[in-house]
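user: can you give me the structure for this one chain? C-alpha cells are fine.
assistant: on it. calling the predictor now.
[tool input]
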Amino acid sequence: MIYLDNGATSFPKPPEVIGAVKRALEQGANPGRGGYGAAMEAARVVFDCRETAGKLFHCKPEQVVLTSNCTHGLNIAIGSLVKPGARVLISGFEHNAVTRPLYARQADIRIAGKRLFSWEELLDAFRRELKNGVDAAVFTHVSNVFGYILPVEEMARLCRQAGVPFIVDAAQSAGSLNVDLTGWGADFIAMPGHKGLLGPQGTGLLLCGNPGTPLLYGGTGSQSRAREMPQDLPERLEAGTMNVPGAAGLGAGLRLIQRQGIRSIFDREHRQAAACAQQLKDLGLRVFSGPHQAATVSFQAQEDCETLAEYLGKQNIAVRAGLHCAPLAHESAGTIEKGTVRVSFGHTASDDQRKALITAVERRRRSGGRL
C-alpha cells in the first residue's frame, strides 16, 4: 500500500515501536501500585517516555501528562482555562477538537486569520482581537487540512505581551517541527502520540505550563487518603490505570525522532509535499499550496472528492477525503461544500510514494475521470 494519510495516523509503525509495546505487555504491570519487579519496570517505561518528551519539547518530565489522544489533552486544557461564556480567540483553521469543547462551554469565539498561507493577515487580525480583549487563546500549529504552518512563535509572544493564557494544538506538528513549552510560554500544548511521534493509537501528551484542572477523578497510586486529586503534576491530571504499553511504544517513537532529528524529518516530508503540489497543479487540479506549508496538500477535482479518493484506494493508494473534522478550516478556504482530497506525507515519505500518486491521478484522467 502507498500510504499518504499520515495526517490521520502514522503508518506503518516502526519496528522499534512495535517491539516496545510487545515487551511492555510481557514484562510490565501497573506503575505506582507496587514495589515488585514488574511494577518497577512499568514505572521506568512511563518515566522514560516523560523524560524523552521533556527533552524534545523543552520542559520538565513532570510537566508531561500522558493522555489517550490529542483531543483528550485539549479538553483538559480548555476545561482548565475557559470558563463558560469566556471570550476565546482562535485561528480560522481549527479542528473540531478545539471548536467543539469551546462550543460546549458556550464560549464567545473570536476568529483571527482566514486567508490561507498569509501570516500577515493572520497576525494583523490576531493583534486586533487581543487589543479588543480576550480571556484565552487556542490555536493550531499546523492545519490538518491544508498543512498551513501558523506563526505560533509570534502568536505566543503576542499572547504573553497581552497577558492572555493560551493553548497550542500541536497535532500536526509534533515530531516534524520545533515545539517548545518553555520558549513559547504556553499554558498547555496538546499532541497525539500516534501521528508524527510514531507511537500507537490511544496515546497522547499534554505539556503543562499550568497545573490544570482535572478532567477525570480517581486513583493515581499516590496520596490515597486524600479526597481530592493530588496537587502536583503529572498525577493531578492522570486518574486511573496507565496505558503502559502505549507509553512504551510512544517512548520508542520519541527516541527514534531524537536519533533522526526533527529538521531532517521535516525536510524529507516537505520536499515530497512541495513536489506533489506542483505536479498536481501541472495536471490542472485545484491545489491548495503556498508558503509556510508542511507535509500536507489538499486538492480538488471536478469530480466528487470522495469518489476520487475511493478510486485511489482501489489503486492501493491511501488518502483522505471530505472535511477532515475541520469545517472551520474549509469555511475559511471556501471549500466547505465540496471538501478536499488530502495527501499527507509522513516519516516514510519517498519519491516512489509521490510518483505512484501522480501516476494514478494521470491514469484517472485518461480513463475519463472529471479532473
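assistant: here you go. The two ends are 23 Å apart (CA to CA). Residues 2-10+261-366 form a domain with the Aspartate Aminotransferase, domain 1 fold (CATH 3.90.1150.10).
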